[in-house]
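Appendix B, record 7
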Amino acid sequence: MQTAKGVRDILPEQKALKNQIVTTFQQAFQLYGFLPLETPIIERLSTFEAKGGAGDTSDVFKETFRLTDQGKRKLALRFDLTVPLARFVAMNPTLKMPFKRYELGRVFRDGPLKLGRYREFWQCDADIIGTSSQLADAECLAVVSEVFNKLDLEVVIKVNNRKLLTGILSQAGIKKQEEAIIAIDKLGKIGQTGVAKELNERGYSKKQIDSVFTLIKENVSLSTLKKQVTDPIGKEGLDELQELFNYLKQLKIESVKFDVSLARGLAYYTGTVFEVFLKKGKVTSSLAGGGRYDNMIGNFMGGGRQVPA
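Structure tokens (predicted):
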């Protein structure tokens, strides 16, 4: 007999270690004042299809495990813990803000397999709902840093801002930006040549592609981009990044590095985005990631509201 592809049994000694890791996460979240929440593994498929959710342009959405119940209702196994949280907040508008919650639980993605990546895995989330201050973003990064320090893992936390990427793409004359961002998000995996090829295949001109890579360069600094980015939304993203790094300096968080190529493929991100990588080791995939999604909850609520998160 065999297990299904992409899943595994967790043996007693592995489970004991996992419990220790989970406890480390819980203690860090509680230290920073986050409250526990538990959402269902099964959601309505429409929750993930909703505008402001992952949307059907996302690679992750395409990896959704889909179900149909006996009543012919379309359902899905959750692929992350963020969309269920947004749905929960939208259904409970009287929550006291800012609402700080954490959740640990299984998520499912029918995606390609590689070292360290499975189709059933755990996520550990901490979110702050109801404040647009970059201090909230800095606090989330501080929690991430706290967790990996306690796990004795040396990591680098790469950050960027989707507004900056939007500005760079607008400056290059690119209008269909979601597709371009999905391609740019693969820069670390397929390199500039691979991304340029993908952008070309999606119909972008050589002039547009060259313009993008004039600004998206390895190790480019915020100060350099401030001189080069003219788009107002891009400038807003740069200002938010500067504010974020000012808070991180006050919090003495030194493991964070700016990376203008970091995109994260999900369409719902609106501001700060981050990913965590091991400095050394065989696992090259990100260990953690997240970002600001100010539109998702409001879109679930309707009426054009914006609920910062």
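Remarks on this record: Residues 1-132+294-309 form a domain with the BirA Bifunctional Protein; domain 2 fold (CATH 3.30.930.10). The chain has a mean pLDDT of 91.
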